Amino acid sequence: MSSTLQELYGRKGRTVTDRDAQEITRVEEVSYELKTADVMNRDLKCLAPTDTMREVFELLRVSRISGAPIMEGNVLVGIISQEDLMRAFANNDQDVPIQQYMTKNVITVKSYEPVIKALEIFARTKIGRLPVVDENESLVGMLTKGDITRGVLVAIQKDYQEEEIRRYRASHLFEDITSDRTSLILRYKIKSRDFNNGGQASSYIKRALLRLGASPQLARQCGIAVYEAEMNLIIHSTNGGVLRVQVEPRRILMQTSDDGPGIPDIAKALQPGWSTASEEARSMGFGAGMGLVNIQRCVDKMDIDSTPGKGTKLLMEIHLDPDEKFKSPPDTPESPGV
Amino acid sequence: MKLSEIIEHARGDVLNPSIFQDVDILGGCGADLMSDVLTGVKPGAVLLTGLCNLQVIRTAEMADVYAVVFLRGKKPTPEMVELATQKNIPIISSDMGMFQLSGRLCKAGLHSLESNWKELHE
Q: Of A83, A142, B19, B49, whose Cβ has the fewest other Cβ atoms within 10 Å?
């Protein structure tokens, strides 16, 4: 199967990249979904077995095609190609009837079969064109690799347009809705000490923001802030907590809340390197006392409200520039130093 | 620098070849502390790390790290390989240590994408 597609798309000898693989997958899918009748050429140019090779020459030349089915009444009896024509002309057989040069055992494909079937036949037999017949074996069209490529491309283009529309709708969500205050709220329950799933919610949030049309820098800033906040819930909270993101046209509010144990000394917690994290948290690469410091760097405003024994609320806010939809990132690659 | 060159310098093995693309890596960073990666690494880096757990992959995703090299022959778990594959992040295993590989890559012309303390706090 893959060799068929490699042949079809001239990828021979080149390593298949990830991108190719994705495209192949979709091309394969389309090749199964599309029927030969969807992509075949219905404008049939037929000849009779008693016509001469000279007539074949004229038909191919005028219609700019490379082969034609040979019909006796309504029955497909053969197929004639450019190669047959060259053989005839080499023998000076311009005026002999087609039946002397045509291929008689014609391989056909059914109109209701998927395109992949035709691709397999092309790969196996090395023939250039396939007559397409209906359930009564009557000729209904002709199929070349070119017809298949065209059909597949049209199908993929349609996919692409649909995807574009979906994306457009998501990224223009706020423009299309009128209210005094529109916001989209994403809410995640975070379990205490669930290190294996740590970062999952943040991953969803980053993805959602990108879907909503956020720039990569903005999604990254929010992603890093909520990731640190999520890890804080996992590392420190007694019973887990809630991570909540509120997306508005002009700002993004992010918030975590838990019911304990609370931070006894907030000023200390904000000092870089100060930490009360467990050995387990440290072994995961966290808990080195940089979480809140990191968050502060990524957001425009951060507030901590904490009562020992009651719980902690961490509020983070990023303002969106109304023109650019994101503020200048803190980490644009400048001239790299060594 | 192409990712394939980095792998050659690291004498590394790609653990999720199905998603491998020979992308341009913009620079390097080395850390065992994931918060350091989140604070101070610019997008497009290869991350060299001695830490080997799921949070490395999550951190790479959040910080837009393009590829991760696990040092000292550390072997990521199947869950890590699966998550990295799902997030389209190539992961590589190398026998070298942090200092050794950082030195080799720097010498070969790969820049640092780590922000230093001063850049971060001024």
A: A83
